[in-house]
Design brief:
11 strands; about 160 residues; 3-stranded antiparallel sheet
Length: about 160
Amino acid sequence: MHFRVTGLSAEPFRRFYGLSDDALAGLGILRYVADKKPGFPDRIEMRDAEPGESLLLLNHVCQPADTPYRASHAIFVREGAVQAYDRVDEIPEVMRIRLLSLRAYDAGGMMLDADVVDGGAIESLIERLFKNPLVAYIHAHNAKRGCYSGRIHRV
């Protein structure tokens, strides 16, 4: 079974790149400078930032469906990131090295199933979730902090 993993589009975040810390704070956004790797997972390029790279920590609506499962949470985006991760049958290292919660949704945004998996074994859970023909897409979240990690689509 084939799948596609995608990061977030940079477009909604570009307007924040380069703003002062005070301007960001007024928007509820914090700037961080990565001081270790791993530790600061960018949601656009789907990679851990290198030490010294600047990231923005902000709230993001990861599940915009008008259902009880509508959700938002804190995410990091690397300041200056432009190209969203988009690969078929490839799990990015940023997911591979973390404990993940996978949440399967139907086309209307209702959660149908969910489970936790070590990122090293994610493919087997993706396959199991997509065996249900009603599952339209899967959201991956970092299980420990609950942050949205990425979206997994059927191919």
